[in-house]
Specification:
The protein is α/β, with parallel strands linked by helices and about 250 residues long. About 35% of the residues lie in helices and about 25% in strands. The longest helix is centred in the N-terminal third of the chain and has 17 residues. The protein is globular.
Length: about 250
């Protein structure tokens, strides 16, 4: 039987191999059957192959701006090949399986995004929230393919995929449904983040793209004391050893 589970993908270089060896067994324990690692250097590709992990090496200059471009290229290629996928950052720790439970299941929008904090601030000023590229799901529909096809050129200018995703959706004039102020708010630095208990939905005025924002309490960028958490993608340092220490301090690994 052909699996209907979307392909879960992440990106990593050899500096993050210790974290991959924590992240991958967690997905396996949760029954996630289709996972692919896009490897940013030969060393991690060889390690994945040796450990029987589905992997593909991506040409990358080593520049962070270029990483976002290469990611968009991979996402566009997956959609062009008819592949529904979930992208998860390697430090987004799955505590339950969001492919089998929670509000992301059974939804028909082209794109489903977890919630970010306040970046980019101009979009946060407009919506009161932003979308996060650290965990999202994309279906290979024509509107989704067109959206990602248009992202690459924009990311080359902004140097940041999250800036481009949020600003392009704003330019498409997506209209969000749901309470204007949210069900509750979380303070972050000098701003307030609007949050909802259920997904809210938007459609673009141009292009027919549909998008859902998943509840922060299920896909947490900041700690929340709720039992509904599926993925905890807390803000942590960039250095792998420091990141592992922070995740351990949170009790996530």
């Amino acid at each position: 039987m052909v699996s209907t589970e979307p392909l879960t993908v992440t990106f990593a270089d050899s500096n993050y191999l210790p974290l991959l060896r924590v992240w991958m067994p967690r997905l396996q324990a949760l029954g996630v059957s289709r996972v692919k690692i896009f490897c940013l250097d030969a060393a991690i590709y060889a390690a994945c192959r040796a450990e029987g992990i589905d992997a593909e090496q991506v040409e990358w200059s080593g520049n962070l701006r270029d990483l976002w471009v290469q990611r968009i290229k991979v996402f566009s290629a997956l959609l062009a090949n008819g592949e529904e996928f979930v992208h998860s950052d390697i430090d987004a720790i799955w505590v339950r399986n969001p492919l089998r439970e929670g509000s992301a299941c059974g939804r028909e929008e082209d794109l489903l995004f977890s919630q970010g904090t306040v970046w980019p601030p101009d979009v946060h000023d407009r919506w009161g929230f932003v979308l996060c590229c650290g965990w999202f799901r994309a279906r290979p529909t024509l509107p989704a393919r067109a959206f990602f096809d248009g992202l690459e050129a924009d990311v080359r200018v902004t140097g940041d995929d999250q800036i481009s995703v949020n600003r392009l959706l704003a330019l498409l004039e997506v209209k969000w449904t749901g309470a204007v102020t949210g069900d509750y708010q979380i303070p972050f630095r000098d701003r307030m983040i609007r949050c909802w208990r259920e997904p809210i939905r938007a459609e673009s005025a141009r292009g027919g793209l549909s998008v859902a924002l998943l509840p922060h309490r299920e896909f947490q960028r900041l700690p929340e004391q709720y039992g509904e958490a599926l993925v905890k993608h807390y803000l942590t340092p960039k250095n792998c050893a420091q990141k592992l220490a922070a995740l351990q301090a949170y009790g996530l690994i």
